[in-house]
Specification:
CATH architecture of the largest domain in chain B: Orthogonal Bundle
Helix content of chain A: 55-70%
Number of strands of chain A: 0
Oligomer: heterodimer
Largest sheet of chain A: none
Distance between the termini of chain B: 63 Å
Order of helices and strands of chain B: HHHHHHHHH
CATH class of the largest domain in chain B: Mainly Alpha
Shape of chain B: elongated
Number of strands of chain B: 0
CATH topology of the largest domain in chain B: Arc Repressor Mutant, subunit A
Largest sheet of chain B: none
Radius of gyration of chain B: 20 Å
CATH superfamily of the largest domain in chain B: Winged helix-like DNA-binding domain superfamily/Winged helix DNA-binding domain
Structural class of chain A: mainly alpha
Distance between the termini of chain A: 63 Å
Order of helices and strands of chain A: HHHH
């Protein structure tokens, strides 16, 4: 049976690509018997969830900001692209 | 002079009206700073203007703009973590240095404990704070890579192109980042949950 070091590596890899069948099976067997790695699997999912959904701010783009950006863009648009 | 078709496509005012809100919220969520988020949206639209010829209409306008915005956010992450374009990443060939998390027989040194319901945990403010702190504590290149992968939801190909690392290296480094988070949060989460009311 694979040890925790290998199992945790497979857990991380499984977030990136579908593991080959044999590796998936050996991980499955390990997880059946190992609470620590089972917890790590759950934690890795939590990390992903927390990172993906940062706290939504209430701040929104306002009219003043819109105008500032728009003016900047117009200025930029009207400047001929005179790259050296 | 732009031809009629191009003029029709390039309409910054329409961009701001249709997508400004979503782009700004996206930038705010990942930068937590209003001024930086505004700059980011502005730089995104300037870049979009300059490269409007590269918009081929295959993806939606919003997807295209969000793609540019992600790169602007990564630039700010880089500055935050003081990572230059040239170094940091390519030098990490021996990245599989995860030995200190495991003993010689491959068992956890500090076994991941049961932290409780994942869904509830992810919503807890205190947990988020510990998470953010731990992300800042880990080596900068790992934190940047982790943010690109998990926050900006870039795929392996995008990550490799943007950061100039190999697929193998990115997977090893993501593994290390996750181990760092596991260890750091495990050490600090208990403490902050006691403080929490």
């Amino acid at each position: 049976m694979i040890n925790c070091h290998s199992a945790s590596r497979l857990i991380s890899k499984s977030r990136e690509y579908p593991l080959p069948l044999l590796k998936r099976f050996s991980l499955f067997i390990h997880l059946k018997a190992c609470d620590a790695c089972h917890n790590f699997l759950r934690h890795v999912e939590i990390f992903s969830r927390v990172a993906k959904n940062p706290e939504d701010s209430n701040q929104d783009i306002d009219e003043a900001m819109k105008m500032r950006i728009l003016n900047h863009l117009r200025h930029h648009q009207n400047t001929p692209p005179n790259h050296l | 002079m732009p031809n009629a078709e191009e003029t029709k496509t390039i309409n910054p005012e329409k961009w701001i009206d249709s997508h400004g809100k979503i782009l700004f919220r996206y930038a705010m969520a990942h930068l937590q700073n209003e001024a930086l988020a505004e700059d980011c949206v502005q730089d995104t639209l300037v870049a979009a203007l300059e490269h409007s010829h590269s918009f081929n209409g295959e993806s939606s306008e919003l997807t295209w703009l969000t793609g540019i915005l992600k790169h602007k956010i990564i630039d700010i992450y880089r500055k935050r973590h003081r990572i230059t374009y040239e170094n940091e990443f390519c030098t990490d060939e021996n990245a599989d240095n995860t030995d200190n998390f495991f003993d010689q027989s491959g068992h956890w040194v500090n076994a991941p404990a049961d932290w409780g319901d994942p869904l509830k945990l992810a919503e807890k403010k205190a947990f988020r704070q510990v998470f953010e702190t731990c992300l800042k504590k880990m080596p900068a290149s790992l934190a940047l890579l982790f943010s690109c992968r998990e926050s900006l939801e870039m795929n392996t190909e995008e990550i490799c192109n943007t950061l100039g690392i190999t697929t193998v290296n990115s997977r090893i480094m993501l593994y290390r980042a996750r181990l760092h988070l596991q260890g750091c949060i495990q050490t600090n989460w208990g403490l902050s949950s006691e403080i929490q009311t």
